[in-house]
Amino acid sequence: MSSEPARRALAAWYAERKESPASLEAAGVPATLPDGSQLSLEAESMVLTVESPRGALVFAPEERADGTVSWHCSGGAGVRTAQLPALCREDDAPAEK
Questions:
Q1: Are 54 and 73 in contact (CB under 8 A)?
Q2: Around Cβ 89, how many Cβ atoms within 10 Å?
Q3: Residues of 43-76 as b/e, b for ≥16 C-beta within 10 angstroms?
Q4: Which residues of the chain have pLDDT under 70?
Q5: pTM for the whole thing?
Q6: Is residue 9 a contact partner of residue 28, using CB atoms and an 8 Å limit?
Q7: Calculated CA dihedral for residues 9, 58, 53, 97, nearest 10 degrees
Q8: What is the DSSP string of 35-82?
């Protein structure tokens, strides 16, 4: 299951308030995806981590010049590049995708 809805909700929160939410709950984002993957948010930097049986994906936000958020994805500890989904092999994972 995709973390796209969570990334969109976090980006919308940031676009409206120009700050990171204090928690996933504050942004209306569930901590568990329908497939059982667990989400965690580093509130200060708005970095979203998705923990699944296949490993962790880390989504780091970047504010664009127009105030929207784009996401950069990388693998967590022990995740090789070859294991990453195509989304994470791209330079940029736009929240609007």
A1: no
A2: 11
A3: eeebbbbbeeeeebbbbbbeeeeeeebbbebebe
A4: 1, 90-97
A5: 0.85
A6: yes
A7: 50
A8: TS-EEEEETTTTEEEEEETTEEEEEEEEE-TTS-EEEEEEE-TT--GG
